Amino acid sequence: MDFSLNEKQKMIRKITREFAEEYIAPVAEESDQNSELNPIVFEKMKEMNYFGSCIPEEYGGGGLHNDTISFAIITEEIGRVDASWGITTSVHCGVCAYPLYRFGTEDQKQKFLIDVAKGNKIGAFCLTEANAGSDAGGVQLTAEKEGDEYILNGSKIFATNGGIAETLLVVAKTGEKGSRKELTIFIVDTNTPGYSVGVKEDKLGVRASNTSELVFDNVRVPEENILGQKGTGFKLGLQILDYGRITIAAQCLGLAQACLEASIKYANEREQFGQKIARFQGIQWKIADMTTAVESARLLTYKAAWMRDNGMDYGLAASMAKLVASEAAMKGAHQAVQIHGGYGLMKAYPVERYFRDAKMGEYLAISAI
Ligand SMILES: Cc1cc2nc3c(=O)[nH]c(=O)nc-3n(C[C@H](O)[C@H](O)[C@H](O)COP(=O)(O)OP(=O)(O)OC[C@H]3O[C@@H](n4cnc5c(N)ncnc54)[C@H](O)[C@@H]3O)c2cc1C
């Protein structure tokens, strides 16, 4: 069994790390303070094709559709410097662009995927509602058929990229199957009458990422915008969340790595009792635990990606990776703030933001369909 990265994957890590440190890291604090992503970074991300890295080149992507480890490395390196860009790209690529490629018709790919893959249009995946969180089967947004259109009514909440997206995947109820709801996924162009963006959430962490309520008031969607078949929303939703969990695991892994690096750096600079605090066993134990958690998260994330690329059922592996990586980020951020002492709570040190950002990973994609 070979755990080493190949030369291409090593190069992708090097290039993405340099990109993230040059363009994203310098504006991360300011973006967090302003609760807004930096428009210059958007343009740079487009130039690097990072909005479509997991999509084939023929649809305007970066061609990593069968190299999920490389795609995970890109998401990890972006998440390492700014979790807000981590969640923005992992949702855009993982649960919007990828499903359009995986389940879309050729017409849908030509009409929607190319613009999403090139970053000309930002994507969002809209499942959660006020009464449908972990219990995603509780979806109440309805889609009524009228001629060759469906009329969507209801609202979605907590949609990442919601306020900036132009292409949405919307999970709606299209009927009842016994005691269960029949769910269907619709591709919605936000430039449709009756659609509007509601509240933009003011969040604890990942503040620069846009998380919004979306309102559908008699929004007419052509029948040909159904992703997959009518009534397959459950089945497709499961598969979309499986792939999404790899991307969330990757961004949390990046954040956990950032917490570890910041802690090692600070512990080797800060002196108390006449010596570097890194010399104290209590600090060394924390860093040993963080290192082990990061390595476990990396191995599980890459394994899930490798299983996907080798045609295996990777759902369970992706869930384990997401659980371990999101907990590694949260525990790592907690330890990082602790190692920084009072400075850990000060905005002058990035661990303060890492601590707030880390909580997001423990909420995302926990929906059970
Ligand atoms: C920053 C952020 C971005 C998000 N982005 C998106 C997005 O892009 N698209 C989208 O559709 N959604 C998104 N979400 C929503 C996210 O998927 C939901 O928050 C998540 O599914 C949990 O639902 P809830 O918040 O309603 O919590 P609830 O379902 O109300 O859960 C509350 C608590 O109860 C626990 N719980 C619930 N059911 C059980 C059970 N059966 N057994 C044990 N414990 C249980 C939960 O674990 C949780 O701790 C986002 C959320 C956040 C915070």
Question: Any chance you could write out the topology, listing elements then pairs?
Answer:
Elements: H1 7-34, H2 39-47, H3 68-81, H4 83-103, H5 106-117, E1 123-126, E2 142-146, E3 149-160, E4 167-177, E5 180-189, E6 195-200, E7 211-222, E8 226-227, H6 233-267, E9 271-272, E10 275-276, H7 281-309, H8 315-339, H9 351-361
Parallel strand pairs: 1-4
Antiparallel strand pairs: 2-3, 3-7, 4-5, 5-8, 6-7, 9-10
Bound molecules: flavin-adenine dinucleotide.
Flavin-adenine dinucleotide (FAD) binds at residues 91, 124-128, 133-134, 158-160, 206, 211, 360, 363-364, 366-367.
Structural notes for this entry:
With 369 residues, this protein is α+β, with helices and mostly antiparallel strands. The protein has 3 domains: 7-121, Orthogonal Bundle (Butyryl-Coa Dehydrogenase, subunit A, domain 1), CATH 1.10.540; 124-234, Butyryl-CoA Dehydrogenase, subunit A, domain 2 (Beta Barrel); 241-366, Butyryl-CoA Dehydrogenase, subunit A, domain 3 (Up-down Bundle). 50% of the residues lie in helices and 18% in strands. The chain is built from 9 helices and 10 strands. It has helices at 7-34, 39-47, 68-81, 83-103, 106-117, 233-267, 281-309, 315-339, 351-361; strands at 123-126, 142-146, 149-160, 167-177, 180-189, 195-200, 211-222, 226-227, 271-272, 275-276. The strands form 3 sheets. The protein has a 4-stranded mixed sheet, covered by helices on one side. A 4-stranded antiparallel sheet has the order 2-3-7-6, with helices on one face. A hairpin with a 2-residue loop joins strand 2 and strand 3. Helix 4 packs antiparallel against helix 5 (106-117), helix 6 packs antiparallel against helix 9 and helix 7 (281-309) runs antiparallel to helix 8. The longest helix is centred in the last third of the chain and has 35 residues, at 233-267. It is globular. The model has no long low-confidence stretch (mean pLDDT 96). The site of flavin-adenine dinucleotide (FAD) has 18 residues, from strand 1 and strand 3.
